[in-house]
Structures are given as structure tokens and as C-alpha cells.
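Figure 3 (text version): C-alpha cells given as input.
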């Protein structure tokens, strides 16, 4: 059982860990050693950190929690293109994450909250309700746990699992700090993408804090009438406010934003909506990523006709909007965008 009174190793930054160790009379280099075992060799327990004195390993094992999340279940998708991990504490599910195997390498898709408070009409996470935000250490554990399972480094991270990352801003940014710290996981921030429903003030804040990490925004419609229907947050932060925040973001970071546009059959996949999208984003440096909706049991939406996806894409291309269509790899195990839950589909 996990002891909640002890500090969790994954929640500490390097100076926090050094402070803890200095209370034991240990030198700061020990903290870097422990981080190397944790973030570079994916050790499963203090026992494995063989170049630490046995007494120190014992002390750490007694007075801190190394891991909080256990791997409760792994499922492999069709063709082994994806793998879904269910994490839990004391046997109870906490969150899911997904490993995606693309030709160009591995991508980890991480959850940031337990359930989600945003309530998008088309997303499986909405059915979970909202329990709490994950701590930075838990987010790191999802990721390092996947590296440990694979036995190799994973080269890309997307915060596109369950939850709204910008409603857990501090912890997500804290996790990114450690993931990109050369003493931590040491991943270039360019390879980390945070996806948000579109909270204007958080987008502007991220522009100042991201230091190279990438941004994706779930637009999913080009008119408020349509977006109101599928994303309740749009009533608070309508499209125009989101676009204006993206323009500020671009000015400050000079980076290309990805606009996610999920296509729901008969809802937002018309050519009229494509035209509106063109005028909305014209002149902006961004990439539109079209995502055909993935089915969620119990939801009455339809996938778009393949023909509609082609036409929508063509209309954007003809108007010189950069566009890609996301290939769904999570089929067969409910691991695609918007299908993550808490492992309940088997219970
Ligand atoms: N809360 C963040 C991260 C969510 S998940 C956000 O809103 O961006 C990543 C993407 O998958 C989002 O664009 C989300 O809207 C989309 N999505 C959700 N459910 C989906 C589904 N059933 N099919 C396809 N995409 C979905």
C-alpha cells in the first residue's frame, strides 16, 4: 500500500530532492544519480539503483514513495500500432495513457486529470465525470512507466489523453520542466505538444511559459452556433476569443499552432463550415489537423463519410490552409482520441 504521508519521488524537482538528501548528509550529486536511474534508465525501484550505498537505498525506500501508479492493465491494438495502459493506485484505476507507434517513432499520449470537467458532447471522457487533477509526479509516472514497459526512450509526448491540461496548468508545466530538463528525461520541448479546448488566458500564459513546447487547440467548428452545440466551453470562450489568443500566442512565440478539427458526420463537416474555417484562419501560420470522430458507445454522433473528409480537406488545401488528416491508431482497444476512460469497458 502507498503511504500518503511520505513524499513522492516523482513530485520532487532536482533541488527538492537534493534538499531531502542533504538532511541525510548526502551530497547533491546523489540527486542527479537518482534522477538518472529514474528518468534515463527507468528503474522500477530504489533497489535497482546499484551505485547508491545500500543504506541510502534503504532510507529512500523507507521514507519516500518511489512509485504510486501501478500498471493495472495493458492492451495492444490491432496490428500492434498502439498500446493502452491503465494505471492505478492501491488497485483502483486512476488514468489511462496510450503509446502510438508511427513510422517516424513512438509517441506517448498522456492524461492530465482523472475524468474531465469540460464535458465535450462527443468525448468518452465526459462520461467519467471529474474527480481530480493529476499531480506532476503522476503525469511523469505515466510516461516513465511506458518507457519502462518498452525498454526504450519515447521520442514524442502529446498531452491529449483524459483531462484539460490548462485546468491543471501548474502540474502540467511542472511535468514538462522535468521531461525537458537535461538531468531529467532530457527531451527537446519541440517534441512536446499540449492540446487544449481553448482557454484564452491560459493560451496567453502558455505563450510566456512554454519555452518551445508546442500548442494544439481543439476548435472543431468555425461558427459559434456549431461549436456551442458540441463544446460547452464555447459559451464562455467563443471562437473569436480563442482565435485572438492564438494570434497573441503566434506574435510572442513565432511558432506554428496546430488546430484540431474533429469531423462529426452531419454536424461540422459541411463545405460551408470549411469555408468559414478558411476565413477564420486566413493569414495565420497554422496547421489544421482533421480528426474523423472515433465512435464512443452510447453517443449518437456519426463518423463523417470518407468522401466528406476528402472534400473538407480539399477545400482547405485549395485555399492554402495547411492540413493533415490524423491517422487513428487506437482502434480495437478504445485508445483513439476521445475514447479513453478508466478501464471500465471490461468491468
Ligand atoms: N482537453 C484537451 C485534450 C483532449 S483530447 C483538448 O480539448 O484538446 C485530444 C483531442 O481529441 C481533442 O481535440 C478532442 O476534442 C478530441 N476528441 C475527443 N473525443 C474524440 C472522439 N470521440 N473522436 C475523435 N477525437 C476526439
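Below: residues designed for each position.
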Amino acid at each position: 500500500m502507498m503511504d500518503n504521508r511520505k513524499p513522492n519521488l516523482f513530485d520532487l524537482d532536482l533541488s527538492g530532492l537534493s534538499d531531502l538528501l542533504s538532511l541525510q548528509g548526502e551530497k547533491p550529486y546523489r540527486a542527479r544519480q537518482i534522477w538518472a536511474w529514474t528518468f534515463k534508465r527507468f528503474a522500477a525501484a530504489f533497489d535497482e539503483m546499484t551505485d547508491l550505498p545500500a543504506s541510502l537505498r534503504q532510507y529512500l525506500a523507507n521514507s519516500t514513495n518511489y512509485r504510486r501508479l501501478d500498471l493495472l492493465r495493458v492492451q495492444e491494438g490491432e496490428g500492434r500500432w498502439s498500446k493502452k495502459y491503465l494505471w492505478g493506485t492501491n488497485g483502483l484505476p486512476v488514468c489511462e495513457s496510450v503509446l502510438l507507434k508511427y513510422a517516424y517513432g513512438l509517441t506517448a499520449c498522456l492524461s492530465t486529470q482523472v475524468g474531465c470537467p469540460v464535458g465535450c458532447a462527443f468525448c468518452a471522457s465526459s462520461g467519467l465525470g471529474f474527480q481530480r487533477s493529476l499531480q506532476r509526479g503522476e503525469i511523469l509516472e505515466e510516461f516513465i512507466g511506458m518507457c519502462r514497459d518498452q525498454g526504450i526512450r519515447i521520442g514524442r509526448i502529446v498531452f491529449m489523453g483524459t483531462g484539460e491540461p490548462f485546468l491543471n496548468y501548474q502540474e502540467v508545466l511542472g511535468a514538462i520542466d522535468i521531461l525537458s530538463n537535461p538531468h531529467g528525461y532530457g527531451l527537446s520541448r519541440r517534441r512536446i505538444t499540449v492540446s487544449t479546448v481553448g482557454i484564452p488566458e491560459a493560451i496567453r500564459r502558455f505563450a510566456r511559459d512554454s519555452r518551445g513546447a508546442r500548442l494544439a487547440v481543439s476548435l472543431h467548428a468555425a461558427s459559434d452556433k456549431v461549436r456551442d452545440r458540441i463544446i460547452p466551453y464555447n459559451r464562455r470562450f467563443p471562437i473569436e476569443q480563442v482565435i485572438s489568443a492564438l494570434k497573441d500566442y503566434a506574435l510572442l512565440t513565432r511558432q506554428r499552432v496546430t488546430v484540431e478539427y474533429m469531423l462529426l458526420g452531419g454536424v461540422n463537416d459541411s463545405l460551408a463550415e470549411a469555408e468559414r474555417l478558411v476565413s477564420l484562419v486566413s493569414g495565420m501560420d497554422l496547421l489544421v489537423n482533421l480528426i474523423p470522430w472515433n465512435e464512443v458507445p452510447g453517443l449518437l454522433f456519426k463518423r463523417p463519410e470518407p468522401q466528406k473528409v476528402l472534400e473538407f480537406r480539399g477545400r482547405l488545401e485549395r485555399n492554402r490552409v495547411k492540413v493533415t488528416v490524423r491517422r487513428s491508431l487506437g482502434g480495437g482497444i478504445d485508445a483513439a482520441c476521445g475514447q479513453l476512460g478508466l478501464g471500465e469497458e471490461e468491468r
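The chain is about 35% helix and 20% strand.
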